UniProtKB/TrEMBL annotation, chain A:
Any one Pfam family match given in the protein's UniProt record, by short name: ABC_tran
Keywords: ATP-binding, Nucleotide-binding, Transport
GO cellular component: membrane protein complex; plasma membrane
CDD domains according to UniProt: ABC_MJ0796_LolCDE_FtsE (cd03255)
GO molecular function, one term: ATP binding
Protein name per UniProt: ABC transporter
InterPro entries: AAA+_ATPase, ABC_transporter-like_ATP-bd, ABC_transporter-like_CS, ABC_transpr_LolD-like, MacB-like_ATP-bd, P-loop_NTPase
Positions of the ABC transporter domain: 7-236
TrEMBL record, chain B:
Any one GO CC term of the record: plasma membrane
Record-annotated membrane-spanning stretches: 248-275, 307-335, 347-368, 397-417, 423-441, 474-493, 699-722, 750-776, 788-809
Protein name in UniProt: ABC3 transporter permease C-terminal domain-containing protein
Record lineage: Bacteria, Bacillati, Actinomycetota, Actinomycetes, Pseudonocardiales
Pfam families (UniProt xref): FtsX (PF02687)
Localization in the cell: Cell membrane
Protein family: Belongs to the ABC-4 integral membrane protein family.
Length: 237, 831
């Protein structure tokens, strides 16, 4: 009885800039992301994928339309309420530039906990880092890590608060196929084992194949929506 | 958040070095000024030099504005440093019947110059000082004098002493050895006569076994009828002595006060700018924090805790700097005659504590608005490459309003500046203009930027684009150049214009062709003018002595400049723009006052003025004339007769002469052996030079360090900015720019910053001059605009050189490093 979707967006519009330089990034998008599903968002460059993910995750404010997470409307919240809500419920992995350069990998990972006022045990960060295969690099700074490793630290950080919903903006974009597969498997297991909700932006059809559902954007609108039969079939078995 | 702040500081110390440096130097500067101030104030705390043996001393007032009904309080201004209050003769009688007193010594002090001594005192007063006769005996006859050792002169020798009445022959009857100051001791009657009967102080020596403090209470009670007199015991008795260095202490105090004010301003200005800039630079990092779940409040707290930590550490360094800087500064001041010889500072806690607290306050205040801005950073900004900050409409409006308010604030300042303490407001005007220009910087710099970056070359195109989009980086780099050039230009040109106009005003009004001034260190005798007036061909001989008077407008007692002048003859030597009445009527019991003074009190010709003279005595003279306010002329003209009774040394500074063609200069010279007869023009030139030298030295003291500080700040911000620039240049090189082209862009950016800053600094100078013009236009016939070009251009050249060097050299190094990396291959980076 999954009546309540994890994320529901209604008639979402986002216009960047004003006047002559205004760019309509999202042009009226209505979508539900049911709890415990893995959705891939695809589409050509500039079609609004990142904008959609950011608005849905409460990182950015839409120009109009509604975003509800777990049935709670984000539009009405002020910055602080939104941040605290996000901190508890949502994890986010950016396309690039994810880590604070002055903090070690471990400190980066525990940052959301510390911001929430918790005193993280070292073990918790190690576990999160081990999950992404970086258990031995806890003390490294971002400048000492490769691009793919940085990306994996960012995923560990997104997961450390055990958020119910994880957004990932091209998480495998900078990774080789091996580590890309690891990351995908990780995201997949979040859904399968913990019934978390994952929404992933990607260009890669292989990555998209891991998803339960694929949403294709074009010029800020939903161009196509399809359920990945293979997955569903696999699941049914 | 504090833990996170500490961590960010530890790992990103290079980024905070700029703020740290700015704060440490600011605190150091402020603490140095504070230590000098403390030393100048403490200058009066040393034990008495005259009243060494136990005694109770009754002295006249040391403040103006005191009446029988209104005893002295801390708000009343001190008397001029070379004037003392006197004890009325009645006080001596009132003390006559007192018990427990072994001796009452009436100190008649008068000007007398021989060797190192400058005062004649009664022989009786010798009992108050330790030491005794080393040779000879006491002065028993009027022509006897006792001098103090060490001296070349022998007992029995004849000497010439310059007294108030003129040179006088004495026979040395004895020599005393004493740790007290050198002085000439003469027979008691003669001391009284030379002092014009005026009593400088009464010293009561307690009978054996009597405590001076207890005696002091009896004395106070006995002097019930004289509330304005001071009864002093212990070290307080120093207050009864005229300190020859008091003027210098006053000068150092006000100089140190100005330096403290200016350094406080510069520190706030630079530190606030640096913090703002660092926050701008860390925009993406802060956005990332927001994305990772930091609330706006947490981001604000982070920025503020960082500032507090930087402030706490930088304050310590600043205090350490001042511990080194203050003695050096004191030595410099003493060496250049701006402070008493041997002027030194001590490490006193309160200026250091004040400076430290100021440092913390500046850090917190400086980070306040950047922190608020940081809190408004949106999490999505972490993602984009672009860190360009859109300037919100509301913010721009606030900047405009505040900036215009600062510029407009100079208009009321112009009114204040035409008042007596005008020059003091000059700094305020300059500061207002600088702050105003800085707030309007985003708007003001645009046209200049465009001008500097014209051209069709790709470099010009790139420079134009970055000046347009990187407004914050440009504004941050321009600000220290603006403050340096504005401060130097405004202060230098403003002071020079004020003093040139003042000198010109005095020149315009003096009509006398010749003047007699002291030839050496000895002053002109009081009767000089009378003697000269009798000579053939001398139409008028007018003695003039500068002094101060005080008025009370109900809220506070203020000091004004005044001249003692021979009234009836004055019109022959000085052209006075009288509005009503005539200075011919300036005789005993009458004064002439300036229009502004008359207006403030509602005084009219024929009415009565209420004033305090330099000796603190309240007088109510008739108003003989009201004179227009003129720069160079005093606010009040006092009749010469008052000098005899109210001036500590009733001897003229100069005697102005009006002559007929029959006048014999040789006869005039012969009549004044201690004087030099010179033209008024050459006398004024000498005065100007002396004044200019002092003025220049104080300006160096005031501006020098502040400019050094801002110059360092220029380099500092350039170095912070260059990080961004280098990133840009690297990208440029990747897309095919040669190293030479990249460096040309760096140079162009440095030049744009320098030229814009210098132009706006010049605008501040012009604004200052305009304000000075408006202010002086009210009180002088012509305003002489004077810009001291050599020092100003030197400051400008330094600014340009520093901006270019600090902008281009690190970029050059960074680019070279990149090349060597490329050449060295992977191995170097792997190690
Ligand atoms: N801050 C911004 N200001 C102006 N326009 C923007 C801004 N951010 C995005 N846009 C525009 O909005 C549109 C959607 O951008 P978005 O980043 O969502 O695209 P995307 O689908 O994620 O593309 P990509 O696959 O290249 O990452 C684009 O046309 C982009 O130019
Ligand atoms: Mg994208």
């Amino acid at each position: 009885m999954s009546a309540e979707p994890a994320v529901r967006i209604v008639d979402l519009r986002k216009i960047h800039g004003t006047g002559t330089v205004a760019v309509t990034a999202l042009d009226g998008i209505t979508l539900d992301f049911p709890a415990g599903t893995f959705t891939a968002i695809m589409g050509p460059s500039g079609s609004g994928k990142s904008t959609l993910a950011q608005c849905a995750a409460g990182l950015d404010r839409p120009t109009s339309g509604e975003v509800a997470v777990d049935g709670v409307l984000l539009n009405a919240m002020d910055e602080t309420e939104l941040t605290v809500f996000r901190r508890k419920r949502i994890g986010f992995v950016f396309q690039a530039f994810n880590l604070l350069p002055s903090l070690t990998a471990e400190e980066n990972v525990t940052l959301p906990l510390r911001l929430a006022g918790a005193r993280p045990t070292p073990g918790r960060a190690r576990v999160a880092l081990a999950t992404v295969g970086l258990g031995d690099r806890a003390g490294s700074r971002p400048s000492e890590l490769s691009g793919g490793q940085q990306q994996r630290v960012a995923i560990a950080r997104a997961l450390v608060t055990a958020p119910a919903i994880v957004f990932a903006d091209e998480p495998t974009g900078a990774l080789d196929s091996g580590s890309g597969r690891d990351v995908l498997r990780l995201l997949r297991s979040l859904v399968d084992e913990h019934r978390h909700t994952v929404i992933m932006v990607t260009h890669d059809p292989v990555a998209a194949a891991q998803a339960d559902r694929v949403v294709v954007l074009s010029d800020g609108r939903v161009a196509e929506e399809r359920t990945a039969e293979k997955r569903t079939a696999e699941k049914a078995r | 958040m504090t833990a996170l702040a500490r961590q960010t500081l530890r790992t990103r110390w290079a980024g905070f070095l700029g703020s740290f440096l700015a704060l440490a130097l600011g605190v150091g500067l402020f603490a140095t000024a504070g230590l000098i101030l403390a030393a100048a104030l403490r200058g009066h705390d040393i034990p008495p030099r005259w009243y060494v043996a136990p005694s109770v001393v009754v002295a006249g007032p040391d403040r103006a504005g005191v009446t029988a009904l209104d005893p002295a309080d801390g708000f009343d201004p001190a008397l001029p440093p070379d004037e003392r209050g006197f004890v009325p003769a009645g006080a001596v009688d009132a003390l006559a019947g007192l018990e427990d007193v072994s001796a009452v010594i009436v100190e008649h002090v008068s000007y007398a110059r021989f060797g190192a001594a400058t005062e004649a005192r009664p022989w009786a007063a010798r009992a108050l000082r330790p030491g005794g006769l080393a040779a000879g005996g006491p002065p028993t006859r009027p022509e006897h004098v006792v001098i103090t050792a060490p001296t070349e002169t022998r007992v029995g020798e004849e000497v010439t002493v310059v007294t108030v009445e003129g040179p006088r022959r004495f026979t040395v009857s004895g020599i005393i050895e004493t740790p007290a100051e050198p002085a000439l001791y003469v027979a008691n009657d003669l001391a009284a006569r030379l002092a014009g009967g005026r009593v400088a102080a009464i010293a009561l020596v307690p009978a054996p076994g009597v405590d001076p403090t207890t005696l002091g209470e009896d004395v106070r009670a006995a002097l019930d009828a004289f509330p304005m007199l001071r009864v002093l015991t212990g070290d307080d008795r120093r207050g009864a002595e005229l300190d020859p260095e008091a003027g210098l202490y006053v000068g150092v105090t006000s100089l140190a006060g100005s330096v403290a004010g200016l350094s406080g301003f510069v520190a706030v200005y630079i530190v606030a700018g640096t913090f703002r800039f660092t926050v701008t630079q860390r925009r993406r990092e802060l956005a990332l924090l927001r994305a990772a779940g930091a609330t706006p409040r947490q981001v604000r707290r982070l920025v503020r805790s960082e500032a507090l930590l930087v402030g706490a550490a930088a304050g310590l360094v600043g205090i350490a700097l001042s511990a080194l800087g203050a003695p050096a500064a004191a030595g410099w001041l003493a060496g250049h005659g701006l402070a008493p010889t041997g002027f030194t500072t001590e490490l006193v806690w309160w200026p250091l504590a004040a400076a430290y607290a100021l440092g913390l306050a500046v850090a917190v205040a400086g980070a306040w608005s950047p922190a608020r801005r940081a809190g408004r950073i949106r999490p999505v900004e972490a993602i984009g490459e672009a860190t360009v900050e859109r300037r919100g409409g509301a913010r721009a409006v606030v900047g405009w309003v505040l900036g215009s308010a600062c510029l407009g604030g100079t208009i009321p300042m112009a009114r204040l500046m035409s008042g007596p303490a005008g020059a003091a407001y000059l700094l305020v005007v300059v500061m207002l203009l600088i702050v105003g220009a800085t707030l309007l910087l985003p708007t003001l710099m645009r046209p200049v930027n465009r001008l500097v970056t014209t051209g069709r070359s790709p470099i010009a195109m790139l420079a134009r684009a970055s000046a347009r989009s990187e407004t914050r980086r440009y504004a941050a780099s321009i600000a220290p150049v603006l403050v340096t050039v504005g401060l130097a230009g405004g202060t230098l040109a403003g002071t020079a214009t004020i003093s040139a106009t003042e000198a010109a005003g005095l020149r315009d009004h003096l009509t006398a062709p010749m003047v007699v001034v002291p030839a050496g260190a000895a002053r002109l005798p009081s009767g000089t003018a009378d003697r000269l007036a009798g000579l053939p061909g001398v139409t008028a001989a007018v003695p003039v002595k500068a002094t101060s008077v005080f008025d009370d407008r109900g809220d506070m007692v203020r000091e004004h400049t005044a001249w003692f002048v021979h009234g009836a003859a004055a019109r022959h030597v000085v052209r006075l723009p009288t509005i009503s009445g005539s200075v011919d009527g300036l005789s005993a019991g009458a004064v002439a006052v300036s229009a502004s003074l008359a207006e403030a009190h509602g005084w009219r010709t024929g009415g009565t003025a209420t004033l305090w003279l330099g000796d603190g005595a309240a007088v109510t003279p008739r108003i003989a004339a009201v004179v227009e306010d003129r720069l160079g002329l005093p606010a009040v003209f006092l009749p010469w007769e008052l000098a005899r009774t109210h001036s500590t040394t009733p001897m003229p500074d100069a005697v102005y002469l009006a002559l007929t063609p029959q006048a014999e200069l040789a006869a005039i010279r012969a009549a004044v052996p201690l004087g030099a007869l010179v033209t008024v023009e050459s006398h004024l030139t000498t005065l100007d030079e002396r004044f200019d030298r002092l003025n220049r030295l104080s300006l160096i003291a005031l501006l020098g360090v502040a400019l050094l500080y801002t110059a360092i700040a220029i380099a500092n911000t350039q170095l912070i900015a260059v990080g961004d620039l280098t990133r840009e240049l690297r990208v440029l090189c990747q897309v095919g720019a040669t190293r030479r082209q990249a460096l040309a862009l760096a140079r162009r950016e440095g030049l744009t910053v320098a030229v814009t800053g210098v132009s706006l600094g010049c605008a501040v100078m012009i604004g200052t001059l305009a304000t000075v013009h408006i202010a002086l236009g009210r009180v002088s016939e012509t305003v002489r605009t004077l810009v001291p070009w050599p020092p100003f251009l030197a400051v400008v050249a330094c600014c340009i050189a520093i901006t270019l060097a600090a902008g281009v050299l690190p970029a050059r190094r960074a680019l070279r490093r990149r090349e060597s990396h490329a050449a060295g291959g992977r191995r170097a980076s792997a190690s």
